[in-house]
Amino acid sequence: MLVSPGRLERPWQGQTERPRPEDLPAYDPECALCPGNKRAKGERNPPYTATFSFENDFPALSPAADPAPAGREALLRSQPESGACRVVCFSPRHDLTIAGMSNREIRAVVDSWAEETGRLAAREGITHVQVFENKGAMMGASNPHPHCQIWATQHLPTGAQRRMGAQRRYHHDNGRDLLGDYLSRERVEGARIVCANDHWAVLVPFWAAWPFETLVIPARVVGHLSQLFSDERDALADILGRLNRRYDNLFGVSFPYSMAWHGQPMDGHSHPYWRLHASYFPPLLRSATVRKFVVGYELAAEAQRDFTPEDAAARLRAALDGAIAGSWLATRGAVDGRARGAAEPPERGPAEPSVRSASEPGNGRSG
């Protein structure tokens, strides 16, 4: 990872972005995700009042794949892939992102992630379940209604293979899990910690490539979302709300990002070295209108960032942990507690320009 703090001083005459309008309606009759509306293929959404999940109308994967033709090519190989694609709407409100939701509402989202993950993992032939969210047009979201996707695949994707390899090697060599040791190290120093509670910590990782990239790590070793205890789910709702409000207040806009949860493989084997974690990849760099572009040197050689992870964490810590001043979110009441109708979680038992290199669990490279 090449860190070049001086590059923030260079004049910018390049592309600028247009922030998302902040006056979205609570209900959009043309939105395919709003309650009661008809989706592209004719199916109508129920009048849902909390979260809502359904099979993606335009899935990237199908339950059954055609068999591959007999392969004769030694250099180029392919194989069929089957799976499932689900969509989870966070709220019936068209204008309500995680940053504006109460802890109770975010808890309902966490429960939906856990339930969908467990349900998909139980399907025959599924090895990997990926929860991810693309927020904002800048990150390719086709609809502004807050939602995420969950893809379940027969094979273990390349990124998951690399995470598994790095965590397994570290556990074999040290007898402890990699992310647990890393979190302990970060807690001692504190410079890259953004916020934390009893069960979760948010930090800007030492190897962060994106300007305000963050990592969400649980305090205990847990393999996937469906294994979280009730108090851990409550704490996760709290920490996600705090992080997203800081993001929005950093530049005074609804902060775009791609977010992904990284859980252990669903292959029926034990993975004691794997600690569940989430990654946030926001593109904004200098302001609400200037983003980072991965081009040139970064495509050709290695990742590069224009300010240190420590500076990014300090700026996020300084951002207000509250609704954007002047917005409707600033006066919206927050009601904590548990969402009705959600499945019960498991019961808890006892209880300067420089080059950086680190053993990153995320992509199996130095950075």
* Order of strands across the main sheet: 2-3-5-4-9-10-8-7-6
Number of strands: 12
Order of helices and strands: EEEHEEHHEEEHEEHEHE
The end-to-end span amounts to 4 Å
Please give the count of helices.
6
Structure summarized in a few sentences:
The chain has 367 residues and is an alpha+beta fold. The chain has helices at residues 103-121, 158-174, 178-189, 230-251, 297-300, 309-318; strands spanning 2-3, 52-55, 83-89, 128-135, 147-153, 193-196, 200-203, 214-218, 257-262, 277-281, 304-305, 354-355.
Characterization of the model:
The protein has 367 residues and is α+β, with helices and mostly antiparallel strands. Helix content is 23%, strand content 15%. The chain contains 6 helices and 12 strands. The chain has helices at residues 103-121, 158-174, 178-189, 230-251, 297-300, 309-318, and strands at residues 2-3, 52-55, 83-89, 128-135, 147-153, 193-196, 200-203, 214-218, 257-262, 277-281, 304-305, 354-355.
Topology readout:
Elements: E1 2-3, E2 52-55, E3 83-89, H1 103-121, E4 128-135, E5 147-153, H2 158-174, H3 178-189, E6 193-196, E7 200-203, E8 214-218, H4 230-251, E9 257-262, E10 277-281, H5 297-300, E11 304-305, H6 309-318, E12 354-355
Parallel strand pairs: 1-11
Antiparallel strand pairs: 1-12, 2-3, 3-5, 4-5, 4-9, 6-7, 7-8, 8-10, 9-10
Which descriptors apply to this entry?
globular; single chain; three-stranded mixed beta sheet; alpha+beta; 367 residues; disordered C terminus
